[in-house]
Amino acid sequence: MNVADSERLANALDRLGCEPEPVMERADIIVLNSCVVRQGAEDKVTGRLGSLKKLKREQPDKLISLMGCMVGPDNTDLETRFPQVDCFMRPQEFGPLIQLVEAQEGTCMDTSVPLVPSTPSVATFIPIIHGCDKFCTFCIIPYRRGRERSRPIEELVREAEMLAVRGVKEVTLLGQNVDSYGHDLPGEPDLADLLRVINEVGGIERIRFLTSHPNDMSERIIDAVAGLDKVCEFINLPVQAGDNGVLEAMRRGYTREQYLAKVDRIRAAMPESGLTTDIIVGFPGETEKAFEQTVDLVKRVRFDKIHIASYSVRPGTIASRKQPDDVPAEEKKRRNTTLEAIQNDISSEINGSYVGRTEEILVEGSKDGRWQGRTRSNKLVYLEGAGRFHGEIMDVVVEGATAFSLTGRAKEGSRVVLSQIG
Ligand code: SF4
After folding, report:
1. Quick one: which atom of ligand 1 is closest to the CA of 133?
2. Residues 57-116: pLDDT tens digits?
3. What is the crossing angle of helices 2-15 and 95-105, to 10°?
4. Region class of 146: left (phi > 0), else alpha (psi between -120 and 50), else beta
5. Ligand 1, pocket residues at CB < 6 Å
6. In this structure, which residue's CA is closest to atom 1 in ligand 1?
7. From the CA of 147, how far away is ligand 1's center (Å)?
8. What is the pTM of this model?
9. Region of 182 on the Ramachandran plot (φ > 0 left; ψ -120 to 50 alpha; else beta)
10. Which of 18, 174, 227, 280 could form a disulfide with 13 if both were Cys (CB 3.0 to 4.6 A apart)?
């Protein structure tokens, strides 16, 4: 979400005549886009703000802006702590900085054209719903990003069309909970309806979406993902814990049995789909037995990948007020490492089963002289051999695998999709 927000603000600044300046000391405008989902992320922004204090003293004309989840509805405390900051912006609310720049430059931005990434790559993001209504006890997001607000379908289709004209071939529809898209719009369309119309946009060849909530991933959505040709068979379905007591304490709203049934339903519809998840270890009250339930769930489901976080208290959440952080740091670390090792073995086995298969990838760019792209199931593939493949959708024969990526070679006479726009 933060990458998508930064890209859109960059587009607004670009339209106001600004140019990117990679060296902070030379820039006239500095924007820090903050994340508070974990303590480490917040500490990083606080540290950077500290070093900006000196810079602002030396060059008071610089415009310094703080945006993102660190900024809440009341900034009194932030204004006192960081007087070097000229303006504060909540997520997606770019107005304060735009107005300052407009006033400085004596110009005015046309707001009727949607903000899209200025120099998009072949794959980019489209935020479709902001905020979250769930209030899981550990999570700060509903307090910082607010309640759910869906963007109208027509606006999203227009944005996808604009991106296609600029050469984008893959869009990832973004939201804290994309599966609840549309409930606040007239006629209550859902994610399945949105996927159907984006599937019709010429030039867009692939569609993904992030992130899902197990309770809101409906039969209609699963069937749409399985049935629409451009929608990639990849789902990130956060489980957070495998123990019913912990799930209840987190207020996730489902049991492990219900989660496992949802996984079965997805796999029945799409046997080859990529499935990933998010897990928190060391949540308050998580006993060794409860942790073992998470290990058991991970072994049963055999996810392609898991994102593991050790629990950290976020001030302002329900857990911070009512659930003492009672799992020692060392124990959290051990559980994190244990789970990671188990998952690495599973990922190695799953990725190993791709060797010899032909997979369709979209080549997104190159790193260290090797082209890289992703399969429809979201596996990272490094391409061996020379060629100019940027932006191409091609068939690749997989030749090698690790827990984290695949290597492959363009298939002889590979099908290359040239986008038809319009
Ligand atoms: S559903 Fe996700 S974003 Fe919403 S409160 Fe729960 S963890 Fe946070």
Report:
1. 4
2. 999 999 999 999 999 888 899 999 999 999 999 988 899 999 999 888 887 887 777 787
3. 20
4. left
5. 132, 134-136, 139, 141-142, 176-177, 213
6. 134
7. 11
8. 0.91
9. left
10. 18
